[in-house]
Amino acid sequence: MKKSLLTDREFEESKNVMEDKGTSIRYVLKLCIIGITPRAKQAIVKIRELCDEHLRDCYELEIVDLAQFPEMAIGEQIIATPTLIKKLPLPSRRFIGDMSHIEHILRGLDIKR
């Protein structure tokens, strides 16, 4: 599987997190959807709830509608939606499909309840 390269900003953020061990890890997440369908709405609600409950102020969530930005689907190699991409902290991870499986996503993000 081909991995996408980090932008300079993402690399610097990752480096800063590793250097500053006294603070919480900052999560950089991207949720890719296509249109505002019931499934996309559910994914947005579930991921926002997960972030608010488990990551509090330690996250950045970007929601991208691939219908409006189709070039991002190619750049991020999105083959299905919804897709949640964990950019930081490394390693990068992807979650595809039903975002209501919170336990599965928490395990993948290495977050303990």
Describe the SSE topology.
Blueprint: H1 8-19, E1 27-33, H2 38-55, E2 59-65, H3 70-75, E3 83-88, E4 93-96, H4 102-108
Uncertain regions spanning at least 5 consecutive residues:
1-5, 17-22
Tell me the overall shape: globular
Strand elements, count: 4
Rg calculated over all Cα atoms: 14 Å
Taking the sheet with the most strands, its summary is: 4 strands, mixed
| Tally of DSSP helical segments | 4
Mean pLDDT: 85
Adjacency order of strands in the biggest sheet:
2-1-3-4
Helix content: 25-40%
Query: CA-to-CA gap between the ends?
Result: 30 Å
Classification by helices and strands: alpha+beta
Strand content: 15-25%
**SSE ordering:** HEHEHEEH
Note the quaternary state here: single chain
How would you explain this protein's 3D organization?
This protein is of the alpha+beta class and 113 residues long. 38% of the residues lie in helices and 21% in strands. It is built from four helices and four strands. It has a four-stranded mixed β-sheet with strand order 2-1-3-4. A hairpin with a 4-residue loop joins strand 3 and strand 4. The longest helix has 18 residues. It starts with 7 loop residues before the first helix and ends in a 5-residue tail after the last helix. The N terminus is likely disordered.
Short characterization:
The chain is α+β, with helices and mostly antiparallel strands and 113 residues long. The chain is built from four helices and four strands, in the order H-E-H-E-H-E-E-H.
Please tag this protein with its features.
4 strands; 4-stranded mixed sheet; single chain; 113 residues; alpha+beta; 21% strand
